[in-house]
Each structure stands twice: as structure tokens, then as C-alpha cells.
From TrEMBL:
This is Biofilm PGA synthesis protein PgaD. GO terms for biological process: cell adhesion involved in single-species biofilm formation. Pfam families: PgaD (PF13994). The gene is pgaD. The chain crosses the membrane at residues 12-34, 59-79. It comes from Kosakonia oryzae. The keyword Metal-binding does not apply.
Length: 144
């Protein structure tokens, strides 16, 4: 698919929120590493490798859990590929333009225009019926 069906606008505020949350997560991670490994080693240099070994054991446990979850996810995906390798459903016949126009309470000419459009905006009223349609004409030629 060359063009997405739904365009998501990425404004500045959601991007800033993503950046702030990512930075907060990294700061939290570094704080945990500092208080779990570095601070005990600095406070008790004669303690030996206990803080490092304890942290490595915890990380190994997390890695094992991640591998088990990943394996379960891969097994589930393979099972679904095997299960749905054949399409068992039959495709319903498409609506004719007149039937589609009748179901949406619009004219058949508008249905023909909508079928030609690549990008359009549909406005609905309070009842969910189509109030207006704005057809956006875009340049489909790519620059050389």
C-alpha cells in the first residue's frame, strides 16, 4: 500500500509528551541502576560482588520472562497462521451504486464522485447521516 487510508496528524504537543515520557523513563532507569548497583558499591567497597550479582540475577530473570513471553507469542502466531491458512468464508457480493446511494440517503451521482476520489472528508449530522462531503483533489503525479 503506497498511501495510508487514515492520515494521523502529529502535532507538537503529542510529540513533546512522548519525548518527556521517554526522558522520564530513562531517568528512572538510570536512578534504579545508580541506587541498585553504584551506590551500594560506593557505600560498602568491602562488600564484594553481591550488588552486581544480585542485579544480574534479576536481569536474567527478566530476560527469561521476556523470552518465554516472546516464545508464547511466536507459537500463537504460528498456530493462527496454520489455523487460518485457508479462507473458509465466502465473500458477499458488493452493493450496486443505487443500493449504496439508497442506504446512505445520497444521490447515485455523489456515489460515483466518491468512488473517483482518493481523499475525501465526510461530515455527519447528529443522527449519523451524511451532512456533506468535501472531495480533496490531490496531485497523483510524482516529481521527476
Amino acid at each position: 500500500m503506497q498511501q495510508p487510508l487514515i492520515f494521523t496528524e502529529r502535532r507538537l504537543l503529542p510529540r513533546l509528551i512522548d519525548i518527556v515520557l521517554t526522558l522520564a523513563a530513562w531517568v528512572g532507569f538510570l536512578w534504579l541502576i545508580y541506587h541498585g548497583m553504584v551506590k551500594p558499591i560506593i557505600a560498602h567497597p568491602d562488600m564484594g560482588p553481591h550488588p552486581v550479582v544480585s542485579t544480574l540475577n534479576t536481569l536474567a530473570l527478566y530476560l527469561l520472562i521476556a523470552v518465554l513471553y516472546g516464545g508464547a507469542l511466536i507459537i500463537w502466531a504460528r498456530y493462527n497462521q496454520y489455523r487460518f491458512r485457508h479462507e473458509r468464508r465466502t465473500r458477499r457480493s458488493g452493493l450496486e451504486s443505487e443500493e449504496l446511494a439508497e442506504s446512505f440517503a445520497i444521490t447515485p451521482e455523489l456515489v460515483a464522485e466518491l468512488n473517483k476520489a482518493r481523499v475525501l472528508t465526510v461530515h455527519h449530522n447528529e443522527n449519523g447521516s451524511i451532512k456533506s462531503v468535501v472531495i480533496h483533489h490531490i496531485n497523483t503525479q510524482t516529481p521527476a
